[in-house]
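Reopening this one. Same input as before:
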Amino acid sequence: PPRSTLFPYTTLFRSRLAIIESRSTAAPDPAVVPLKAPAEPPAKANLFSGILARHTERQRVIAMAEYPRPGTDDQIDFYLFERKPGAVLKPYMMGDKPAITVRAGTTEEWVIENWTHELHAFHIHQVHFRVLDIDGERVESPPLLDVVTVPYAMATGYHSKEGPLRPGRVRIKLTFPEALAGDIPFP
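Same output, byte for byte:
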């Protein structure tokens, strides 16, 4: 049977829907209104908006370490502490005063050091941060995170100016909103 018998509407709708031409040869058609992409809604401001632009009020070094427990063959103690003059390396005991006290509303930069030979995650509850660099390599367009993997320590040799071991390091910028004042655990 002829095509028009099977598809009677074919001849009615036979028209050119579009022509694609290269930019160099096509002249704009004034009768055609270009479609505009819908504008993206502006990002909603939140407690952590603009961290990178905020003034850093304090810098800290937070160290992760592990050592065999004295007097035992197979027990290892893990430590997370602020590395500063006078710091004492001892396990945190429930009921001890907080390891770090931060004034609400402040912004700080922390260098998280991993002195172990294992990858470790650093996580802080309720607070978000931006990773500025990892082992000295700048992070472009850092995402907003609450957990980051800290590289493990590397042996450098006893004659290295860094010493026999160089910790893995992650530098973060974080803010402590007043709305979140209270205890904030970080493992």
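So the earlier flakiness isn't reproducible anymore. For the record, Confidence is low (pLDDT under 50) at residues 1-20.
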